[in-house]
Specification:
CATH topology of the largest domain: Immunoglobulin-like
Largest sheet: 5 strands, antiparallel
Number of strands: 31
Shape: extended
Number of domains: 4
Structural class: alpha+beta
CATH architecture of the largest domain: Sandwich
Strand content: 35-45%
Number of helices: 8
CATH class of the largest domain: Mainly Beta
Radius of gyration: 34 Å
Helix content: 10-25%
Distance between the termini: 62 Å
């Protein structure tokens, strides 16, 4: 039998055995935001996992939205012999009125069976008020804070929005730095569109949690963004895309508005003695399991503190010594969760409690104190006290071996004695047990697949070597091309600038193109200080690096201020000599 026939037979068997090997079917509905204004556009995705073919989703709760169908995306992967297929349907929603809505569930039909997804809540508020001086600008940066009056350690939401009616690239962010204030990023930037004064803007939104560490009145300075802006030209048509229009890129810098913030100290009146600085809204849960054991066996006390606020400062609660009990505390575990508007979390604390002799013991309650900034007062939560009953068991004087897990199995105690304990299932075998009514047939099938496996076994090394050789060849060829471009960067710069009357933007772009090509950079904007550091690190003299830094700073000053300068021709000539020095000094 030829190798080709064997391969075909193997493919047929593989498809036959994997036909029912799909993962479980599930439907998931998501929105890119849970809170929008009336003019925003929301991206909704319906993901069908487990089957390639299904009916088009039918979605409830869309009567108050204008719905535009987007595209679909699908993928198939094999995990542990199981084929997992996923199809993603994309929709764009524009709200027709303000209010609170429930979107979903989405339903699809697969083989005459209907599957439903989850539902998602969405809040739509009225359109935002326009900021004076910004509504007519094609580009502007806006900063907002959820509250301007805070208590010490109280969290606030700091939001930056970049509004765009121009095409931009190479965006870099400069966050404000204020002593006493801490910014923590919440999530990946969100992109959506909105309308202001009947003009459509694309929006990039970034969210941070702001936490004050010192009381006082703050003036949060403006955040800044550097970018390259591409002016639209109707005559360009298809070629208005930045990929075909790189020469028209112009560096730009945007700054947001400043924000005033008043941070008050926490009140001293009625402050509990056990207050540790925790600010927010929290809850405490406690559990003792079991409540009745034998002497020298263990029970586990679990306390969970969860809530929103400065969750990283949740204190470790202390369980005092109790006569007649051995107490072993596990390492507390803190879980942090970030959503689009806040940071929440929970702290899990566990103790293994072992009675030394029979009797009844009282596990006292424990207290947690925190400050509630919404109500402006301190609160103290107490766990309930528990009664632990110990029955006569092993000899209290025997030397039992007790071991405490320091990780996930907190409070698990092993006692070295001859007492029988209840058998508990701790897991399930991940491999299924297969049976066969015809063992001979099963052996023949196994022998057949073993032969195919042996024939295919040498194939992966040869495929790997071929791919490795191709990758190396492509890498070397690409590297040679880049090296040639790097050596010719100076000549190309001279061709662009020598004997020509260029604008400051064109001179700036030519210098950046030289630096990116000469030093094999990935592209993008470089500040004068970054240019200086780059040249010093590559071996240029401090004099040459300083001259190029100053020349770029002068060009950017002309670009950003819009002032005309009579020294552009002189700067252009100086750059020619400076870059020649760079080529001589940097090998």
């Amino acid at each position: 039998m030829s190798l080709k026939k064997i391969f075909y037979i193997f493919c047929i068997f593989f498809l036959a055995f994997s036909a029912d090997a799909f993962a479980d079917i599930s439907i998931d509905l998501t929105l890119d935001r849970s809170s929008v204004v009336l003019t925003d556009t929301i991206v909704m995705k319906v993901t069908v996992t487990g089957k390639q073919k299904s009916s088009f989703p039918e979605i409830e709760g869309l009567a108050s939205f204008n719905v535009v169908k987007g595209g679909t995306a699908s993928r198939v992967e094999f995990v542990n012999g199981s084929m997992n297929s996923e199809v993603e349907y994309i929709f764009y929603l524009t709200p027709l009125k303000p209010g609170k809505f429930v979107v979903g569930p989405a339903q699809v039909r697969i083989k005459n069976k209907v599957y439903s997804s989850n539902s998602v809540k969405l809040t739509v508020s009225k359109a935002r008020n326009n900021q004076a001086g910004n509504e007519s600008s094609p580009l502007f940066l806006e900063a907002r804070i959820s509250k301007n009056n805070l208590y010490l350690n109280q969290n606030a939401l700091y939001t930056l929005r970049l509004f765009m009616r121009e095409q931009v690239s190479n965006i870099s962010l400069e966050m404000p730095e204020v002593e006493g204030l801490v910014f923590e990023s919440l999530a990946e930037p969100q992109k959506y569109s909105t309308s202001i004064n009947e003009k459509r803007y694309e929006v990039i939104e970034l969210k941070y949690i702001l936490m004050p560490k010192k009381p006082g009145i703050y003036s949060i300075p403006a955040a800044g963004m550097r970018m390259t802006v591409y002016k639209r030209n109707r005559r360009d048509g298809f070629f208005e895309d930045p990929f075909f229009n790189m020469r028209k890129g112009k560096p730009a810098y945007l700054s947001s508005n400043e924000i005033q913030l008043d941070v008050k100290n926490l009140p001293k009146q009625n402050r509990p003695n056990n207050f540790s600085g925790l600010v927010g809204r929290f809850d405490v849960k406690a559990n003792l399991d079991p409540v009745e054991v034998k002497a020298n066996e263990s029970a586990t006390l679990t306390i969970i503190v969860q809530g929103r606020g400065n969750v990283r400062q949740i204190p470790d609660l202390k369980l005092s010594d109790i006569k007649g009990l051995k107490i072993y505390q596990d390492k507390p575990r803190l879980n942090i969760n970030k959503n689009e508007s806040a940071i929440s979390g929970e702290k899990i604390m566990k103790w293994a409690i072992v009675p030394e002799k029979s009797g009844e013991y009282i596990i006292p309650s424990m207290a947690l104190a925190f400050f509630d900034p919404e109500k402006g007062l301190y609160r103290e939560l107490k766990t309930e006290s528990f009664s632990l009953k110990s029955n006569p068991g092993a000899d209290a004087g025997s030397s039992d071996l007790i071991s405490i897990s320091g990780d996930n199995h907190a409070g698990q105690v092993k006692t070295k004695n001859n007492n029988k304990q209840e058998i508990t299932r701790i897991g399930k075998d991940i491999f299924p047990v297969h049976t066969s009514v015809d063992p001979v047939k099963g052996l023949r099938q196994q022998e057949f697949f073993n032969k195919i496996f042996i024939l295919l076994l040498p194939a992966p090394p040869f495929i790997f070597l071929a791919l490795l050789a191709g990758r190396k060849l492509f890498k070397n060829n690409n590297k040679n091309i880049l090296n040639i471009r790097s050596r010719n960067a100076g000549k190309n710069f001279l061709k662009k600038v020598q004997g020509r009357d260029l604008s400051p933007e064109e001179i700036h772009a030519a210098v950046l193109n030289y630096l990116n090509t000469r030093f094999l950079l990935k592209g993008g904007l470089l500040t004068p200080n970054e240019v200086y550091d780059l040249l010093i690190n590559r071996g240029a003299s401090p004099e040459t690096a300083s001259m190029l830094k100053n020349s770029i700073a002068q060009i950017e000053s002309v670009i950003f201020t819009g002032e005309k300068s009579n020294s552009l021709a002189q700067i252009q000539d100086e750059l020619t000599g400076i870059l020649k020095s760079v080529d001589q000094e940097v090998k």
